Amino acid sequence: MLKSILKTVLLTITVAATAFGLVASAGVADAQTTGGAQVTPIKYGDIVRGALTNKNYQVSYKFTGKKDDNVVISYIADFGADHSLFGRILTVTQGKTVLVDPTNYVSRVYLQLPADGDYTIIAGRTDGKKGTDEGSYILRVLNPQALEDGKAVTAKISHADVTANTSIDDYYILPADSAFTVKYELTDGEDRPTIEIDHASDNGSLDSGASLSGSNLDNGVLGISPNKGTNYLLHVYDYYTKNSLSYSVTYSAAK
Q1: Which comes out higher in pLDDT, residue 102 or 209?
Q2: What is the Cβ-side half-sphere exposure of residue 176, based on CA atoms within 13 angstroms?
Q3: Residues with Cβ within 8 Å of residue 231, at least 6 apart in sequence
Q4: Which three-class secondary structure state does DSSP give residue 154?
Q5: Are 232 and 146 in contact (CB under 8 A)?
Q6: Is 34 helix (H, G, I), strand (E, B) or coil?
């Protein structure tokens, strides 16, 4: 088990030359010429199941975004497969590296796009061609909606068919000009998700600041006094079962 946990992979996000006139980094060129020649187009909301092998040790994806788009990218072990890719190193580049996020099991990053254009994501592993880690993963690219004061949002988490773009977790942008609360209520299903308020660190990696969870959790409220200049997101997820559930969340700013 320890050996599996210490395995690492690498996720790199690069801004395509069409967006900034930048020269592609060596990592991008390598990904497109060795171990991953094809770049697969994806769009917001897509869920992609893939695998890293010694032959295909990097897999490239490209999406198009607009300036100031809020984007969340998650890169996790495929829960329906072999679980061999536990470790994560998440790297974001814009001509140069701007984020390195070493994690165990799940990599998550938030960024606000600096310009219109095409963006490339490289799902890879530490040491590239010389590495030895192999296994399946699920990669997701989201453009989360912002919650509005006093308006409930309802959603469903489904594990029925991840390749058909059903959701295994949801993200929402939280306005954070002042203190706020988020009310959660389970509306259908036997499983109980985890509800957490994440904050983006200076380098974009997402960390939990407050959470609700429990096998009998039907409803609850989270409250935050935000730090100035910090981005906050609500994360609702249920990774560990194959059932579905429905819920509602309501954001309320302090009066």
Answers
A1: 209
A2: 19
A3: 110, 112, 173, 176, 199, 200
A4: strand
A5: no
A6: coil
C-alpha torsion angle, residues 195, 201, 203, 205 (rounded to 10): -20
| DSSP 8-state symbol, 149 | B
pLDDT of residue 232: 97
- Look at the pTM and tell me if it is higher than 0.70: yes
Amino acid at 7: K
Q: Which residues, in sequence order, are CB contacts of 21 under 8 Å at separation 6+?
A: none
How far apart CA 81 and CA 102 sit, in angstroms, is: 22
Q: How far apart are CA 223 and CA 178, in angstroms?
A: 11
Measure the CA–CA gap between 180 and 192, rounded to whole angstroms.
23
Position 250 confidence tier, pLDDT thresholds 50, 70, 90: very high
CB 123 within 8 A of CB 53: no
Measuring CA to CA, how many Å separate 251 from each of 7, 110, 111, 181, 204?
Answer: 38, 20, 22, 6, 23
Q: Are 127 and 206 in contact (CB under 8 A)?
A: no
Among 117, 92, 87, residue whose Cα is nearest residue 103: 87
Query: How far is the C-alpha of 192 from the C-alpha of 170, rounded, in Å?
Result: 14
